[in-house]
Amino acid sequence: MVAHLVRLKVQLLFNSLRRSTWQLVGVIIGGLYGLGVMTGVVAGLVALSFADVELARTVVVLGGSALFLGWMVIPLVAGGVDMTLDPARFVTFAVPMNKLLAGMMLAGLVGVPGFITLLAALATVGTWWQRPVSLVAALVCAVIAVFTCIVLSRLVTSATTSLASSRRFKDVSGIIAFIPLILLGPIMGTVATGLENAQSFLPELAAALSWTPLGAVWSVPADLALGSYGSAALKFLIAAATLALLAWLWKLALASALVTPAHSAVTRKQAGDLGFFARFPANPTGAVAARALTYWIRDPRYGASLIMVPVLPVLLLFIGDGLGALNYLGPITAVLLAWSISADVSYDNTAFWTHLTTGVSGWADRAGRVLACLVFALPVSLLFVVVPLWINADWALLPPILGLTVGALFTGLGLSSVISARYTYAVPPPGESPFKTPPGSGARTVVVQLVGWLVMAALIIPELVLALIAILGDRELFGWLTLACGLVLGVALLLLGVRLGGKWYDKRAPELLLAVTRNQ
Amino acid sequence: MTQDPFAPRTDDVPEPGLYPGVPADADREAARPAAANAPGALSIRGLAKRFGEKIAVNGINLDVPAGSFYGLVGPNGAGKTTSLSMATGLLRPDYGQVLIHDVDVWGQPLEAKKLMGILPDGVRLFDRLSGEQLVTYAGLLRGMDRNTVASRVADLLQALDLTNDAGTLVVDYSAGMTKKIALASALIHAPKLLVLDEPFESVDPISAANIRDILHSYVGSGGTVIVSSHVMDLVQRMCDHVAVIAGGNVLAAGTVDEVRGDSSLEDRFVELVGGRNQTEGLEWLRTS
Q1: A117-127 exposure pattern, b = at least 16 Cβ within 10 A, e = fewer
Q2: Closest CA to B201 of B50, B80, B44
Q3: Domain limits of chain A?
Q4: Are A443 and A25 in contact (CB under 8 A)?
Q5: Helices (H), ranges, A78-166
Q6: Touching check for A271 and chain B: CB below 8 Å?
Q7: Contact with chain A for residue B235, Cβ under 8 A
Q8: What is the pTM of this model?
Q9: What are phi and psi for residue A114, nearest 5 degrees?
Q10: Helical residues (DSSP H) of chain B, grouped into ranges
């Protein structure tokens, strides 16, 4: 039975790869990247064997604790990362509980995260290769640590199943999880500078953590190496007890999950609230705009793009030195927001058939989506131009920056209208977490996006050049020229993009539907 | 003007052997005339589609008379959904022609789409809209004015017993309710032809009866309904015409009485499609 579960997991993994060449390419690239990171981690851990034991302990305990935390938190925010072996699917089979537990535990190792964790944990053995006693202990502890990781994530997933099956929770947690992800760079930067200032503090933190379930298991080999056998034994007990306790709790959670089908209550609502449909003009373009805007607010996949708006200024503050970088907030926001509708048809998924069967014209489809995006992108971009200039009192920059922003926004929307009418790629399906990109869909996405960005850059060259001359050369005339160019060229390219995209759409709408059907 | 590369090829014949069901040149005209003098609600001529090596639809011909309640039956994977997708303008055929009330679906798609309402199977809806918003959306996309849309939406929600859930997001609907709201979206523009792919799947019996009533009165007032299903009993009771499709070919078509002859539709279907096992074996299953 245990072997069956593991084989099932392996088969599921392979089958998911067999679906398309692009996916395979993506997985290979992702795998190579992961392998590179892994090589670094393993080399680092082995290199620690030449360092001071105290240092080795601090690093291993801190890293190991972070690993535990990751396994605990990621399933929560990513909406149950890996539900291929969802306990709910085993409800109808009479699998003995102990075998189910063991099978699911081992199957958790199959897959990229499990494999990487296993490798990293085993690499700690390399840290102690010069001390035989610690080496043996490290091997035992690595195995305990890996299983603790898996049981921990399974327990968190099982315990929050009812919470996670609520659509609202999934929607909100999916979006909120994006904030730390986007801010990862600045956060790590801050932490790094903080660490430089607090180097004396770190060993103390590690020492404290080593007495908690998070760090105990990682600390045992180091304690042995230092000769403190008593504390090593105690910490080993803590680690073993933690695993036992977690496994027992998991068993309880699983047992109750197997007899309680997941269900979520839905509140019924009467008719009467048409939302944006009552506010936009009653024609096909207005209807598409109302629908798209509704999705911007209700669909977490769009929400993930929207969350960029408040996060971007923070990001710029960290990257640039001082408030000066904020001057360029407007153009950057404009580019990102305009680009965000470039995968619109992919996001529609097969619901796109509604557009096809109602015979909505390509022009109306394209224009509606652009309109929905403009409704918030234009005010936000303008605000992001004016406020930083006001803070920095750089009013001389207003014409060129404004011209660049308007030009980028309109040009980008025009380009997106063309791209989404022609190229589709696999995006998270409706209702899924924005994190859940279909495995290995990356390669095609990257190609389309890269070419798109290059074309985008080429199209706004006039505004860029004029703005550069105006800002660097300090020529007021060129600033006004940038503004004029941004307005005229931008609007022209927007209209052209909507027209061309609409024309392609009219010709190829059934092929688009077929493409999004295949992307699923 | 250069030829539109996306237009289906109707005038030339596929290479011999590519679609065994498509008659060779000489036989083609002979196979055609039946429909030419009696324009039906839907007529399909030599419709063919292949996906890679697999022939999904093998050059089928089908005539659906106006005002008929037409059932399309066939085993899973018979090509029902593919045929209906091509007939309704969702999937471009490799070969063949589809006319809806004499309008060419692939030649004049906009005119053809005004005449029909469709309920496809196995596709998503814009389910982050409320039920009311979704039906309104379908109406507005078709260029109808706001007041007409509003009054028809209210009527449809009432008729399909969805008024109390009209403000709920479609994503939170049950499977049956989702089918019903999709049906409402298909009816909003008062089409002359209604094409429903598996409309009764996972719909509760009371809702199914309500839907049947709506469809019957629709047919009574001159509309045409095509439903695909694999519930033979339902088709026999509900439809006046039926076509049996299997392996991408139409095996039989006509009025229900013509097709079933003396036996029940289910027996006739099994006879046509084959693949029935004699109920032997599984001796160990006998409990006494």
Answers
A1: bbbbbbbbbbb
A2: B80
A3: 2-259, 276-519
A4: yes
A5: 97-107, 112-127, 132-159, 161-164
A6: yes
A7: no
A8: 0.75
A9: -60, -40
A10: 25-31, 33-36, 80-87, 109-115, 131-141, 146-159, 175-187, 205-220, 232-238, 256-260, 265-273
CATH no. of B59-101+193-205+215-273? 3.40.50.300
Q: How many CA atoms lie within 13 A of B232 on its CB side?
A: 16
CA distance A432 to chain B (A): 12
The verdict on a CB contact (< 8 Å) between B141 and A284 is yes
Give, for all 520 residues of chain A, the pLDDT tens digit. Answer: 678 877 877 777 777 666 666 667 766 777 787 788 888 888 888 888 888 888 888 888 888 888 888 888 776 665 444 555 666 667 667 777 778 788 877 877 777 778 888 888 888 888 888 888 888 888 999 999 998 988 888 887 777 665 655 666 666 666 666 666 666 666 777 766 766 666 667 788 888 888 888 888 888 888 888 888 888 999 999 999 999 999 888 888 777 777 765 555 556 777 778 889 999 999 999 999 999 999 998 888 887 778 778 888 888 887 776 777 888 899 999 999 999 898 899 899 899 999 999 999 999 999 999 999 999 999 999 999 999 999 888 888 899 999 999 999 999 999 999 999 988 877 878 877 666 655 555 677 778 888 999 999 999 999 999 999 998 888 889 999 999 999 999 999 999 999 999 999 999 999 999 988 887 6
Can you say how many angstroms the Cα of residue B88 is from the centroid of all Cα atoms in its chain? 8
- Around Cβ A517, how many Cβ atoms within 10 Å? 18
- Which of A295, A354, A363, A520 has the most B C-beta neighbours within 10 Å, making it the best mutation to test the interface with B? A354
ipTM value for the complex? 0.87
Domain coordinates of chain B in residue numbers?
59-101+193-205+215-273, 124-191
The alpha-carbon gap from B155 to the nearest alpha carbon of chain A, in Å, equals: 12
